[in-house]
């Protein structure tokens, strides 16, 4: 028989929720409201005057070829980071789950990179692949590969994708490993007895049971690629060369903090927020239909 828990003080539940509600209001809803309001005004760069222009900032942004380029860059960057980080994490999780001796050591070492700050992760990859002093860059050049991400946009994109995916692999690995350990071993053993090989067991039993975890990580990695990779791009390429790695969130920074175009920057923030909300809704509405919950 279940017992109903009753708080002795009716105000206590609200007091317990108050800190989280306050943080949400101050650090999410208030900045979002300010961004929407600012997007409807055109301000003087020094803050001396402000003029209401309605949707003119949005029209200016959407007609800007550089903004369209940033949108294309963001799509390529986000898809690449999500695919690389998820696939690599799943492979590592499957391999770590099969280890018997020293399993804890391997798992701990694979989780450690997540503790590295994005800017630090970017600097590590910059030091490794810098054409002037990078160890791996020198190896590539000695092998006859013309490596110079400071001038080649495709190489710069590959470098920031690698840095961003490397930073996120540990997070994905942790969830995939937990999902693998939650799968009943009896199912896999029964399939093996029936003659199913390792590949067939993985695609018909293991992977479908991992679909809730995969769906969750797909949403998380999409949001991560859109917002949390600013520090990596800023440290590695600064959006260059020739805007080849300038994502939407980095263009918001360039227009708002560097060029002091606050109205256009706010309009871009609102558009970016709408894009992420729309992607999340699409993922939950359509992608989740293929998720199998045990």
UniProtKB/TrEMBL annotation:
The chain crosses the membrane at residues 12-33, 75-96, 108-129, 156-180, 201-227, 267-287. Its main location: membrane. CDD domains: TM_PBP2. InterPro entries: MetI-like, MetI-like_sf, UgpAE/MalFG_permease. Coiled coil: none annotated. Pfam families: BPD_transp_1 (PF00528). It is found in: Cell inner membrane; Cell membrane. It is a multi-pass membrane protein. Keywords: Cell inner membrane, Cell membrane, Membrane, Transmembrane, Transmembrane helix, Transport. Residues 71-283 form the ABC transmembrane type-1 domain. SUPFAM superfamilies: MetI-like (SSF161098). PROSITE patterns: ABC_TM1. The complex is composed of two ATP-binding proteins (UgpC), two transmembrane proteins (UgpA and UgpE) and a solute-binding protein (UgpB). Part of the ABC transporter complex UgpBAEC involved in sn-glycerol-3-phosphate (G3P) import. Probably responsible for the translocation of the substrate across the membrane. Belongs to the binding-protein-dependent transport system permease family. This is sn-glycerol-3-phosphate transport system permease protein UgpA. It comes from Skermanella cutis.
């Amino acid at each position: 028989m279940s017992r109903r828990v009753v708080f002795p003080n009716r105000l206590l539940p609200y007091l317990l929720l108050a800190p989280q509600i306050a943080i949400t209001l101050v650090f999410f809803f208030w900045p979002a409201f300010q961004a929407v309001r600012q997007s409807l005004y055109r301000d003087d760069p020094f803050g001396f005057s402000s003029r209401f222009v309605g949707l003119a900032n949005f029209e200016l942004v959407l007609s800007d070829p550089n903004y369209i380029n940033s949108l294309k860059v963001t799509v390529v960057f986000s898809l690449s980071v999500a695919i690389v980080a998820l696939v690599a994490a799943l492979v590592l999780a499957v391999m770590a789950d099969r280890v018997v001796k020293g399993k804890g050591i391997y798992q701990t070492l694979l989780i450690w990179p997540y503790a590295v700050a994005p800017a630090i992760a970017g600097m590590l990859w910059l030091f490794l692949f810098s054409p002037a002093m990078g160890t791996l860059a020198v190896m590539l050049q000695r092998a006859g590969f013309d490596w110079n991400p400071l001038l080649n946009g495709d190489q710069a994109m590959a470098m920031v994708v690698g840095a961003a995916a490397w930073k996120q692999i540990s997070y994905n690995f942790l969830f995939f490993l937990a999902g693998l350990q939650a799968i009943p071993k009896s199912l896999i053993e029964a399939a093996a007895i029936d003659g199913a090989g390792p590949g067939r067991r993985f695609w018909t039993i293991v992977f479908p049971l991992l679909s809730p975890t995969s769906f969750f990580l797909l949403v998380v990695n999409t949001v991560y690629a859109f917002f949390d990779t600013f520090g990596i791009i800023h440290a590695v390429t600064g959006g260059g060369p020739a805007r080849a790695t300038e994502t939407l969130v980095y263009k918001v920074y360039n227009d708002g903090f560097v060029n002091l175009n606050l109205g256009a920057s706010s309009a871009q923030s609102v558009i970016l927020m709408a894009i992420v909300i729309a992607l999340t809704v699409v993922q939950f509405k359509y992608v989740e239909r293929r998720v199998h919950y045990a």
